[in-house]
Task: inverse folding
């Protein structure tokens, strides 16, 4: 290894996962080199082991060695997230079923659950990466957490609850106040009062439930003054939140009025259960893409086309940490990516979610699951029996 | 120790009788509102025998596997057999389920019972499964 290589090593995936705060503060050029390298290796991993993904690559005429610079990343074949709802989604797996440790699900708009299956290595990376990210963005190590969500015991496979639950380890006390799908704001306030003067109080939950708590306080003409370091951390539920016609500024304003928490300590997160990408807001309300992921904004009318930075389009996520299936996903979400410097000091990308995509399911795979399975069956049926 | 039995692995990776049966004369649907697992059976029952049967299932790997397994157990058998299967028997047929997978045996038993009951009463469940499959 030459001296120049020693002076400027490419960031390793393990370093990104274990120290995302440091990775996100690297100069933009180093971030770019690092993400291309780890995504190329992730691409190679699945290219060599996943027949379905390999069929997409072959159909598109792309190999891992073609991924040299960032401009090549859009060539990586994407899997639409709708595929994870399918009963034949086993073809997406790179890992054998017996390596699958955790199945996480969300409920789609049609009521059909999307199921993401993670093997042991992918679970380890996700847990370490998310915990390290929380630590970097929130610097939590004590206090009490009021979770406006069900417990993981009640909903063990629900992605949002699992991600919230990882915060639990930072707190000295916590309570879940959604039980049997019911939320009682009075009970939530009782817990906040119980911790008053004893611990710094934090509120964690989907925006629509935080909003429900705020509406209760508003109707009761009651204002709480939480603590100097209190935070409100939200994830998911934006559909309900926007459906109730409240803007982010109005949301933050009500939190300050009724809970005494300033906007810089109200942090939303964005992610999807199929990916190990959890983009967390800094104090400037920019959602930072973790260093092991690359967000590519695609043209809605031609998803093979990557749009320039700042343009609005479909959000695609390239995730280098997933070994159970190719973590190169085309979401149903519309938004933008930004790479301008953030005053918080973190570099890389930030992402903004605008809305869910409307319209029919996307069919961007070069080889459909049906065709892939059909071809395999034909090959199996026509195979020449081995000589005895 | 493997996380899934060989039977579950086999049915998950090579699902049998997948899809919806055209010309089915009985349909049974069961969904778990908490975890979101769903199984739809569509069958053609002739002279009390399940002549043909297909499934659609959404949810965890074990639920997809037991739905496939169920179709292989019921196909060609008297429809009344479906009403006699319980969760213990289905778990036995799978070769064993981990504690966090056992709910799928109950789900499979429920949908089997529903198939038998729907046939007896001459009703068919709606198709609530809306997926781009």
Result:
């Amino acid at each position: 290894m030459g001296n120049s290589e020693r002076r400027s090593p490419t960031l390793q995936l393990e370093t990104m996962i274990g120290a995302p705060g440091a990775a996100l503060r690297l100069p933009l050029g180093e971030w770019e080199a690092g993400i291309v390298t780890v995504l190329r290796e992730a691409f190679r991993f699945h290219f060599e082991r996943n027949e379905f993904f390999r069929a997409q690559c072959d159909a598109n005429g792309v190999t891992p060695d073609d991924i040299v610079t960032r401009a090549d990343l859009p060539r990586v074949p994407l899997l639409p997230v709708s595929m994870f709802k399918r009963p034949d989604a086993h073809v997406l797996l790179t890992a054998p079923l017996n390596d699958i440790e955790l199945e996480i699900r969300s409920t789609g708009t049609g009521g059909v659950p999307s199921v993401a299956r993670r093997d042991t290595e992918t679970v380890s990376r996700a847990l370490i990466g998310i915990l390290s990210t929380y630590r970097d963005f929130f610097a939590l190590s004590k206090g009490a957490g009021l979770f406006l969500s069900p417990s993981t015991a009640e909903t063990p496979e629900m992605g949002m609850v699992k991600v919230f639950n990882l915060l639990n380890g930072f707190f000295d006390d916590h309570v879940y106040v959604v039980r049997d799908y019911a939320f009682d704001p009075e009970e939530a306030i009782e817990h906040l009062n119980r911790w008053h003067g004893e611990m710094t109080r934090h509120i964690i939950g989907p925006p629509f439930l935080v909003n429900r708590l705020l509406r209760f306080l508003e109707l009761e003409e009651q204002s709480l003054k939480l603590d100097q370091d209190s935070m409100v951390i939200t994830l998911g539920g934006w559909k309900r939140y926007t459906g109730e016609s409240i803007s982010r500024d109005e949301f933050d304003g009500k939190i300050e009025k009724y809970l005494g928490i300033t906007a810089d300590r109200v942090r939303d997160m964005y992610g999807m259960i199929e990916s190990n990408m959890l983009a967390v807001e800094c104090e400037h309300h920019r959602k930072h893409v973790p260093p092991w992921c690359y967000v590519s904004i695609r043209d809605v009318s031609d998803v093979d086309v990557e749009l320039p930075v700042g343009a609005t389009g479909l959000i695609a996520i390239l995730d280098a940490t997933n070994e159970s299936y190719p973590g190169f996903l085309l979401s149903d979400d519309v938004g933008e990516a930004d790479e301008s410097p953030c005053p918080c000091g973190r570099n890389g990308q930030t992402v903004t979610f605008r809305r869910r995509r409307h319209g029919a399911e996307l069919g961007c795979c070069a080889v459909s699951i049906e065709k892939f399975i059909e071809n395999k069956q034909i090959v199996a049926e026509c195979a020449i029996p081995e000589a005895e | 120790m493997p996380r899934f039995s060989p039977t579950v692995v086999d049915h998950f990776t090579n699902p049998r009788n997948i899809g919806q049966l055209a010309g089915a004369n009985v349909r049974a649907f069961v969904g778990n509102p908490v975890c979101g697992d769903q199984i739809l059976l569509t069958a053609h029952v002739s002279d009390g025998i399940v002549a043909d049967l297909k499934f659609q299932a959404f949810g965890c790997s074990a639920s997809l596997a037991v739905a496939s397994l169920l179709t292989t157990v019921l196909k060609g058998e008297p429809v009344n057999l479906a009403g006699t299967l319980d969760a213990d028997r289905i778990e036995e047929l799978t070769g064993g389920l981990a504690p966090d997978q056992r709910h799928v045996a109950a789900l499979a038993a429920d949908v089997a019972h529903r198939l038998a009951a729907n046939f007896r009463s001459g009703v068919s469940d709606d198709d609530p499964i809306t997926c781009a499959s």
About this structure: Confidence is low (pLDDT under 50) at residues 1-8, 379-388 of chain A.
